[in-house]
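Quality-control log, excerpt.
Job 1 of 2 completed; input and output follow.
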Amino acid sequence: MFLSPVVRKLAREHNLDLSSITGTGRDGRITRRDVEALIESGAARTAAPAEPPAAAAPAAPAPPAVQPAASQTAAAAPADIPLLEGDEVRDLDRLRVRIGENMIQAKQTAAHVWTSVEV
């Protein structure tokens, strides 16, 4: 069953069993409105309490002593995005890396604002 990240997050925060929800979306998909309706109806209060977030989250590793270069920092930024169940991280192939490098170079070298005043 495909679930949007918002639906998964709401279900996790309120400790809901999504298999018990009948989806009203396209092809029976569970939507945010379905989960919010279940929460408002009080069904979430009858579920077992969720574990505290501090216990569920593993401790973050210590930051590296050496700061990466600016070009490496931009590439590492997506690692700060939390991964949810079912998410998958893949390395970019050489073509995508080269396209990204060319886009950055174009942004840095080409004028992206042009003003003209006629007198």
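Job 2 of 2 completed; input and output follow.
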Amino acid sequence: MSRDLLKRVRALVYIRVIVVTLLLGSFYVFRIGYERLHYPTVFSLFIVVLYLLTIIYAFVLRWIKEPSQITVFAYLQIILDVIAEVFLIYITGGIGSIFSFMFPLSILSAGILLSRRACYIIATISSILYGLLIDLQYYKVVISTVSFYSEKDFFYNVFAHFTAFYLVAFLSGYLSDKLHKATQSLQERDTVLSDLKAFSRYIIESMPSGVFTTDLDRKIITFNSSAQDITQLALNQVAGKSPEEIFPFLSNCKEPLDRIEGEIQRNGETYPLGMRLSTLKDGAGNPIGMIGVFQDLTELKAMEAEVKRKEKWAFIGELSASIAHELRNPLASLKASVEMLSEKKVSGEYADRLMKIALSEMDRLNGIITDFLLYARPRELNKEPFDIHQSLRDVATLLQGYETGKKNVTITPKLEGSLVITGDAKQLHQVFWNLGINAVDAIPEEGKVDIYTVRKSHRIE
């Protein structure tokens, strides 16, 4: 507020110079009514004094800063202007002077510079001084250049001027209030706007993510502190440059703008970034530039790698458990076959059959270990014709030697002849063996397991 008042007071000083130069200077040059002046030299000195006062005012304005001092100085200037106007009217004819219109200018100045109250104060001072001058002229206390004005003329002149002074004061005060309220409203709006801008700036500066904005020419104009920390670049190093110069991977970004990942070089090392680009718009929705929000993904990538590593080890653990289960089954078959052979209570033909089964289970063990070494990659199916009944008979033979504690379980294969199908013999043999073991384990004390096949259309059960 004080700064605005100081500007207006300074403007009054300059306006005074213009008024003195145009009005009084033209009066002096064109000598309109100049012959009625009693003291022409005094008029010239009066103009010089006004210029000197203006210089003094300008000099004093450099030293006053406090609002109260500025207000007092404004009152002082306007009151001195009123006194100067009274003196000017006196030396240019008094009641017949053409310069009485200058009083309203001072009243208007009071309204613009100060307040409605100041308008009435200056109007009152103007009325008192002007009325005093006219009274002195009427009673011939001062020299008058006119003698043809009657008493009514003097009275009406004073009344008309007083009325004009207060009307101007009223209008000027009204306009002054409107002006001050409008100024205050604008100042409050500017304050709110400044606060909002500062608040927005604080938010952007406080964000952990890097933020930059550009103008319509794609030149960077803002670069928050997080962006400077991530890129190790100061604002003055990126201002005026395009985003592609700072983030080369943006050259591959296609419209419409979306999220993109790339890398930047920092201190000779490469760092991953994730960035989202969008159009920056004003309050009316018009595009005014671009905004980019980005983050350093180094920690995130490290976390992802750690998660993948843990998932891999978890998978290996599950795979190991599965491998242990897969190894246990053929080992059980081998154990049963070897025990039956060691007892030497089986026929030669049956012993040969047990030996073939043992060798087959060894091959299956080798296959399982091979798959594990290949990181448990599922091998391709080896489809070929084979006798499913023979595979089931082999499983039945192995199950007969499978120890299940003190259980009394009878394995009965009800398979007649041969039944040739196309499939992976090894994997199906493993399936049959797992089913057989599960069946034996499900029997509490004693029971039997029947193994047979049923043909249904093109399907074998």
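Post-run check on job 2. The mean pLDDT is 81.
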